[in-house]
Amino acid sequence: MKQMKAKCMALSTALMFLAITGVAQQLTQAAAEGSNEKVSKVKNPFEKAISEPLVRDIYTADPSAHVFNGKIYIYPSHDIEAGEAEKGTGDHFNMKDYHVFSMERIGGEIRDHGVGLDIKTIPWAGRQLWAPDVAFKNNKYYLYFPLKDKQDVFRIGVGVSNKPEGPFKAQPEPIKGSFSIDPAVFTDNDGETYMYFGGIWGGQLQQWDKGKFDPEGSKTDLRKNEEPAIAPKIAKLQSNMLEFAEEPKDIVVLDESGKPLLGGDHERRFFEAAWMHKYKGKYYFSYSTGDTHKIVYAKGDSPYGPFTYQGVVLNPVVGWTNHHSILEFKGKWYLFYHDSQLSGGKTHLRNIKVTELQYDNEGKILTINPYGK
Ligand code: FUB
Known about the structure:
Layout: H1 2-21, H2 24-32, H3 36-41, E1 59-68, E2 71-79, E3 97-103, E4 110-118, E5 133-137, E6 140-148, E7 154-161, E8 169-170, E9 184-187, E10 193-197, E11 233-236, E12 249-250, E13 253-254, E14 272-279, E15 282-288, E16 295-300, E17 307-314, E18 325-329, E19 332-339, E20 351-357
Helix pairs in contact: 1-2
The structure holds beta-L-arabinofuranose.
């Protein structure tokens, strides 16, 4: 009895700590399984973090990294404490501007270029500047950003600048026909540029299931278990980089037997945070599985897919969201990602990080464990 009481006390102390660091979920599971061994293994995860926050004076998340003029430029979300209650619809991610960062080398000093775009300068703005991305063409830099319009519907906007660090001047309207969140812009070797986008729950993609926005549609549900999973979108951009050149199309991710991943396949199906990169002539489409918190990837032979599921790029990080970009710099590959180390696990107060990413001889990405083995 005494022993049980001691176990319970140890367990509740550990639970309090883990609730703060955001890994309570793991411990709850261990407790439910009645395993002391698992409980004692769950310690401060940051002790073994494989990388440290790149920026410490403001909160940053969703890093999109690119090489421009020989330097790495990072375009993250700028997390703030906006005082909103935490909900599945993501209202607590109520960001109001973007800062742009650059680095001459990985591990070197990181420079904050200040505010690259402020919500106050966007004519159609409602609320919530979420994960952005940037592309270079026509001697200009284009910042793509998801933002709710005045009707509270996410659209994707564009800001233009002559410099990679901005400031970016927002176009008067969002991209015609755009919706949902997390634009990732990829320019192929032939010069064509594509936008991948979409995000479920707070990102509203499920509310576009019937081709137009359904304000009464489910805010947090996913497709039925046995139906094909909700698909992320792709649209080629016009050469002016300000408009879609086509109606957005579905991106289909297949399983090993060539069947589309199903809504119930929560460990593998798309949720948000799309990214595209090319390695040895193959197209690598990576994304977050959202409520199962992983970055996974699928491979294909065309920017449109279909893509076949391959495996996990990054295991869950502390904080609910997982979001990344993949970049080649001076012959090495890097994964930019975030966790909630600086805020002690707050889901909406994150910090960007970087670590090396490696492939095996067959082009398979070696899974990264953010807190070691
Ligand atoms: O930062 C706000 C949202 O959280 C992003 O758009 C999602 O990808 C998730 O990281």
